[in-house]
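Quick one, tokens below:
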């Protein structure tokens, strides 16, 4: 009997150190679409990062580009032709090989369908073709040092031609196209999505067999779900004050890191009164960034004075600090006064960026109205409607956020200030000189030459003010103490496949 008890205790001890087969993650974010050709919001892209693979990837925990589907590549002397050699053991979850023909089809589909992120390739790529079973050739319109980095964005990840139509976006649940660590086992929109280990993935198997991502309506419910053990991990977006409270908990572990996410005001420069640069500049002088950081985010953010984030090379503080006197002067030049105030709508979306958004809008309203010459009417719309509104030019002034497609200053410049990119963000800004500078900066391998161009770009950005940068975020997450492997990366890739619970 004693012998059997010893064996039983040994088994129980081993089980106590075994990893759980399922980890539950909670979020207040939502999935919009799981078609890489259309997906251009954080969570949709993040799911795709865990179920698909591209030609390249980021080395875990860094911003270093490493081969993935491509084992290697060569660049022609003129910088225009890239030849990729494709690995031969990659397959989709239905067993379909991922060869050069499939990748070429996917890249051409991405550009042809002209989804929101399509400009990331259409701006620079002239043609894509398979020149062998496992050899891919991409020809650029002009030399572009950002091209390889662009391939780390999910829009360029191949999908299965047996599932995704060639001539329209796919709005369903992918069941044949997973090529990464996970495949999707279940998706109940706005309720949950279940990821299971993909047996056809050529890389290291995920640490946890099943990831269940639960969607919550608000940050308070998400916090409660973590504290009651309903979820193992809370990621995007806990209320900043709740996060500070959780840091004091003995059964919760918190994570925070520098974040290249930026938040900003967008002006539709084609819509009155924001077609007047004096109005845009006046608002840039009147906003109170520090109050947003202190009162809304309790220090878990930093004021931002350029669209290129702090910590990234090329960043310069080019936007003005708060100056109400200067704001009033510009408003007077634009024809406004206390008796004839500027009347504007400020739009925000209430849940996509967390429930702090209403507070941000209120702080902005108060700071602008302190000029005595602006009256602000706050409006809001849920994310899917919000996207339609700004793409269709219905909103004149609204709040947006940006997560990098690739870690390069160009990704904070060309999507905002290039003519095509600006359309997809609802500012409709267009300037021939800016377009010329953007292409010029991409042609230089020498960082100092690129910095010189970005200096001019940022000065013109502050002068034209189609956007007003507000703050730079701090990435946060929280988990139960038995959860391991959570990594808040500089790329903002949240890798579910390295997470496990003991």
């Amino acid at each position: 009997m004693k012998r059997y008890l010893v064996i039983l205790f040994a088994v129980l001890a081993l089980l106590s150190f075994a990893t759980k087969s399922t980890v539950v993650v909670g979020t207040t974010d939502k999935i919009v679409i799981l078609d890489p050709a259309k997906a251009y919001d954080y969570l949709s892209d993040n799911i795709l990062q865990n179920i698909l693979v591209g030609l390249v990837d980021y080395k875990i925990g860094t911003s270093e580009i490493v081969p993935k589907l491509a084992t290697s590549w060569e660049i022609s002397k003129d910088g225009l032709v890239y030849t990729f050699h494709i690995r031969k053991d990659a397959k989709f979850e239905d067993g379909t090989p991922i060869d050069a023909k499939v990748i070429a089809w996917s890249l051409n589909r991405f550009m042809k369908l002209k989804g929101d992120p399509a400009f990331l390739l259409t701006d620079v790529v002239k043609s894509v073709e398979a020149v062998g079973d496992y050899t891919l050739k991409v020809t650029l319109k002009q030399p572009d040092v950002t091209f390889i980095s662009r391939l780390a964005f999910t829009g360029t990840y191949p999908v299965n031609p047996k599932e995704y139509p060639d001539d329209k976006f796919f709005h369903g649940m992918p069941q044949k196209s997973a090529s990464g660590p996970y495949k999707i086992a279940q998706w109940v929109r706005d309720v949950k999505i279940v990821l299971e280990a993909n047996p056809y993935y050529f890389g290291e198997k995920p640490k946890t067999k099943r990831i269940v991502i639960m969607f919550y309506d608000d940050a308070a419910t998400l916090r409660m779900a973590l504290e009651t053990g309903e979820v193992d991990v809370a990621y995007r977006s806990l209320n900043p004050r709740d996060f500070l409270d959780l840091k004091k908990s003995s059964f919760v572990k918190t994570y925070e890191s520098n974040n290249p996410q930026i938040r900003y005001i967008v002006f539709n420069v084609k819509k009155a009164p924001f077609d007047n640069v004096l109005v845009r500049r006046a608002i840039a002088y009147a906003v109170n960034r520090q109050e947003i950081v202190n009162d809304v985010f309790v220090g878990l953010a930093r004021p931002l004075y350029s669209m290129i984030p702090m910590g990234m090379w090329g960043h310069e503080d080019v936007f003005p600090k708060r100056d109400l006197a200067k704001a009033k002067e510009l408003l007077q030049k634009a024809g406004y006064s206390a008796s004839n105030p500027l009347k504007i709508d400020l739009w925000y979306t209430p849940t996509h960026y967390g429930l702090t958004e209403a507070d941000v809008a209120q702080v902005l309203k108060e700071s602008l109205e302190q000029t005595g010459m602006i009256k602000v009417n706050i409006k809001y719309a849920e994310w899917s409607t919000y996207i339609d509104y700004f793409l269709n030019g219905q909103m004149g002034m609204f709040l947006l956020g940006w997560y990098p497609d690739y870690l390069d200053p160009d990704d904070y410049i060309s999507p905002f200030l290039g003519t095509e990119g600006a359309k997809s963000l609802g500012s409709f800004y267009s300037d021939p000189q800016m377009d010329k500078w953007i292409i010029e900066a991409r042609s230089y391998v020498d960082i100092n030459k690129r910095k010189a161009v970005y200096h001019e770009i940022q000065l013109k950005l502050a002068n034209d003010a189609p956007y007003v940068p507000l703050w730079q975020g701090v990435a946060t997450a929280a988990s139960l103490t038995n959860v391991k492997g959570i990594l808040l990366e500089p790329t903002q890739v949240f890798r579910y496949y390295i997470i496990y619970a003991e």
